[in-house]
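Worked example 2:
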Amino acid sequence: MTEAQRKWAATQAFVMKIKPERLLRRPEKALRGRCYDLVVSQWFESFIVVVIAANSVSIATLSFGDKEVKSDVIEALNWAFSTVFAVEMLLKITAFGHLYFRLGWNRFDFTIVFGIAAGFILRLVIQDQNLVASISTMVSLMRIGRLVRLVRHVKQLRTPFNTIIAVIPSILNVGALLLLLFFIYASVGVELYATIGFHGSGLSEQSNFRSIGNAMQ
């Protein structure tokens, strides 16, 4: 790493260790206070982790050629999970108020829930089936985004995740080195084999050295 990148990595590691968090006080109003007690309880946290894990399993069971009954069941489960996450978000907003949006993970949760809700509404309103299929694909991608929440809730995943964030400059340097090696290999291939015919040489329209682009594939 360069000197600047080493300083950036060291700063990131330091910030992750000592990053201060705003002290959340229990609201005085009865409704907000009850919501606060609920969302900060350990059993509620454990319940959300179980729901995320169950959602992961339901997504993993999807496969091409599934029967309609199976697809309908998985779709119903996905909407049930979406409802749970939406209720969780509303409870936290009620409990924390505007402080809810100060935490990056909460903003991520809000984006996921809002995106799924918007996709559901658009599917009800839009009549074009091709567009509905595209929206369904986007909603599915948003659902997969929930899996990232496990990093937040499972402490054993947080350390590797923070480590990956801290070493991003090193990863970029390794990627640049590999790209350079591929380019050198492709350049040598073009110089040596660009004029060789396809027949009997193991080369084809898709696999050849007639250009840098093809040679790097």
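The chain is about 75% helix and 0% strand. The mean pLDDT is 79.
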